[in-house]
Design brief:
Number of strands: 10
Order of helices and strands: EEHHEEEHEHEEEE
Number of helices: 4
Shape: globular
Largest sheet: 8 strands, mixed
Helix content: 25-40%
Structural class: alpha+beta
Radius of gyration: 16 Å
Distance between the termini: 19 Å
């Protein structure tokens, strides 16, 4: 399979299209990242204090520019989630293979793990919608990123996404994710092993 960093795949069904984020998405995405009801569900773990609450178009544009730079640098892929019925980006999905540097011992359980971050506008924070969006990305993610498991953070208050994830087979892990330079400990990660995936 072609690396997603060489050619980012478009994943879609009749309702949603996942494609590489574009600079032109910034106005739509500002509605997501300025949405105070949505912000508590964003995963800022190990992101140098960024809570992803952006309230100006300039800040949103800067974030999109960074995501595109990180993609070119093969750090992670950030897809825009486009609602095909309204023609708007209503969120993003980030994915990358989290692995220990060559020759170093893994610092935690989440090694060779596809780490998935899902950011949605609050009016899409519903079990059925989340399940449909996740179903587009979870199955191909194992091969796209060469990983044996996928992990995503789900805060306790995010009942809709927790139910959607559990319906797909994700289970809350007792393991903690250890951050970068500061070794900060993060929890609330749900994991789906490739061998247990039915997607």
């Amino acid at each position: 399979m072609v690396s997603p960093y060489d050619k980012c795949p478009i994943l879609e069904n009749e309702n949603y299209r996942l494609r590489l984020v574009e600079a032109e998405d910034a106005p739509d995405l500002l509605r997501v990242y300025a949405d105070e009801k949505a912000v508590p569900f964003f995963n800022g773990d190990n992101c140098n204090g960024d809570d992803f609450h952006y309230t100006t178009l300039e800040r949103m544009q800067s974030a999109v520019e960074f995501w595109l730079w990180a993609y070119k640098d093969r750090g992670f892929v950030r897809w825009a989630i486009v609602d095909r019925h309204v023609g708007q980006a209503i969120g993003t999905i980030e994915l990358f293979n989290r692995r220990a540097p060559e020759g170093e011992k893994p610092r935690d359980y989440f090694n060779e793990c596809g780490l998935l971050r899902l950011d949605l506008r609050s009016d899409y924070e519903e079990t059925e919608k989340i399940g449909e969006i996740l179903s587009l990305i979870v199955s191909p993610a194992y091969e796209l990123f060469g990983c044996q498991m996928i992990a995503t953070k789900i805060p306790p208050a995010a009942a809709g996404r927790r139910e959607a994830a559990e319906q797909m087979g994700f289970r809350l892990s007792e393991e903690k994710l250890i951050g970068g330079d500061d070794n900060k400990v993060y929890g609330d990660y749900y994991v789906l092993l490739k061998e247990e995936s039915s997607c």
